[in-house]
Design brief:
It contains five helices and 36 strands. It is mainly beta and 479 residues long. The strands form nine sheets. Strands 1, 3, 5, 6, 8 and 9 form a six-stranded mixed sheet that branches. Strands 25, 26, 28, 29, 31 and 32 form a six-stranded antiparallel sheet that branches. A five-stranded antiparallel sheet has the order 18-17-19-22-21, covered by helices on one side. The longest helix is centred in the first third of the chain and has 18 residues.
Amino acid sequence: MFQNKNARFILMMYIILNNIGCSFISFDDLRVTCSIESQQNFFLGERIEVFFSKSMEFESVNSNIILKRENRVVEAEITGEGTTFFVKPHVPWEYGVGYQIIVNGTLLSREGGSYNVLLQRSFIYGKEGSELYLVQSYIPDSTLVSLSKPLIFTFNKAVDTASFIENFNITPYCQTNIFFNDSGTSVSVYPSSSWNINNRYTWSISDIIAADGYAINRNYSGTFCTFTDVDLPLLTTVCPVSMGEEGDFFWRETSSLDGSLKDREAIGFIFSKPMDIETLKLGISFSPTAKGQLVQDKNNPFRVIWIPLEPWKIQTEYEVKIDSTVADTTGLKLFDSNSCFFTTFNNYMSIAKVDLGSTTIVQFPSYGEQYVLNQSGEEKKCHLRIWFSSAIPKEKRISAIKAISLESFFPVTVAEPILEQVQWIQDGFAVELTWSGLSESSMDVECFYRLYVSSGQEYICNEAEEYLEEDVCIIFKAI
């Protein structure tokens, strides 16, 4: 009797629910299977197949199937009908990447039944044993003095170069150069300049792929330390350096710069540690400005030489400054800036004498003195010679002649003389000049002329770039 009442109750509920169009929870089992077995770790196919033991409503299935890539939901394309449905990602599968398919929720059959379903499969897309992985890594030992040793990574197969370059990271940041061997399985990472001392670096490799498209099996990371050096470099000596005929350097360590440098003599810097020449180039300065080049002493890494490209200015006080940004080869900077003042030893050149023929002048200036210049021959030409304290090189003689002028002085009506000939004698120590057109008198007034020699580096100058300190002026009359 009790069983009949239960059967009638169930029958009545079924009729009511069916009449109002509601689905019902079936007491029949719904079996759900998948083309990926529960113990299967790899899958290599175009689509995953999901099978139901009953014909199912498409919308119900479509809304309850989830596809994940590395634990993140991805857009899936679901097709099929009835008892068989097909699932694949909207974008292409990625080799070596972990995926998960989940069927979870309340699904409706075409018969109107409602079923609570849970099916879950995790797998790696691709062929087993084909994933990319790191076989070995070589990291420089922290005791190595060399700071340019590479990090070397060896993989089981060729690596996609673009993905490695994009996804290899090192902190703190260091600019690197990356090289691959011919097979693409070994990668060497060099610092562009050097690893910094007193540093701990962390490297990481993530999300890279092999040349055949398989992803790396996991992320890798590691650390390494560079050696410790806390001794700051010091500038210990600044001294003059002479250069031999064969390009050898002679360090005059016991001599002071002050009053020692002349011509193009160099300056030597001795440090307590080998220095980075590039930071020195940026960190050395002169006042007034001096042009030069820095070279490393090939016999001693602690020594650097600054060679001027132009002669030092005559009897000029200079300041040479080494900035605190200058660093040694390991990157440690000077504790403080260093300055050194010195005055150059160069002397001015001079006019040794002026030969007017009848008179030789050896002391200048000769203010208030009047001299006589003898004219010779029918054409009344005047010859005079100027002797210098040092020879004038050939390439500077044109500028020297421009510095010498002979012009009328009194009266203003007298005609200007004409320079007819220039001849250098005594190996450039003297020059002979011939003028014509000089007059003894004009309108019964004696005529006077002025010989003027201009000073300055742009005019009369010797090989050492020494020049006249002052102008020279001589007044004379022609007879």
